Amino acid sequence: MLMFWVDESGEVTADDDAAMMIAVKSWVEEMSERGVLLSGGPLRSAAEAKIVRVAGGELLVSDGPFAETKEQIGGYEVIDCPDMDAAIQIAAGHPLARTAKVEVRPYWDAPWDH
């Protein structure tokens, strides 16, 4: 999974935003045609997120996520690659790699999946 860490407080011009959307759309189309992209999409602002926990049988809902950082996960892509090196190359080619940090994280092979 690729997760895009973006600075939500950063200033982006309308022209820069439009250019990025065109570049991302092109990347998505290319990766889809190559059979690499499985799913993905942008996320709404972290200010709209909620954190859900159950403690002692009680539902606790809070605003979130709370992190002492300006960067939040702004979107994700699920890709199919043979190994981490290939995934890193795919991530490096994503347009957001130029303006955001791209976290590349393998899925956990859960024991119940077998």
Low-pLDDT sequence parts? none
User: For the report, how would you describe the main beta sheet?
Assistant: 4 strands, antiparallel
**What is the overall silhouette?**
flat
Radius of gyration: 17 Å
What letter string, H or E per element, gives the SSE order?
EHEEEEHE
Mean pLDDT: 91
Count the E strands.
6
- Provide the structure class: alpha+beta
Helix content: 25-40%
Number of helices: 2
How are the strands of the largest sheet arranged? 2-5-1-6
What is the CA–CA distance across the termini? 21 Å
- How much of the sequence lies in strands comes to 25-35%
Could you explain how this protein is built, in words?
There is one protein chain. With 114 residues, this protein is of the alpha+beta class. It is 26% helix and 32% strand. It has helices at 14-34, 84-92, and strands at residues 2-7, 37-42, 50-55, 58-63, 71-79, 101-104. The strands form 2 sheets. Strands 2-5-1-6 form a 4-stranded antiparallel β-sheet. A two-stranded antiparallel ribbon has the order 3-4. Strand 3 (50-55) and strand 4 (58-63) form a beta hairpin. The chain is flat, with a radius of gyration of 17 Å.
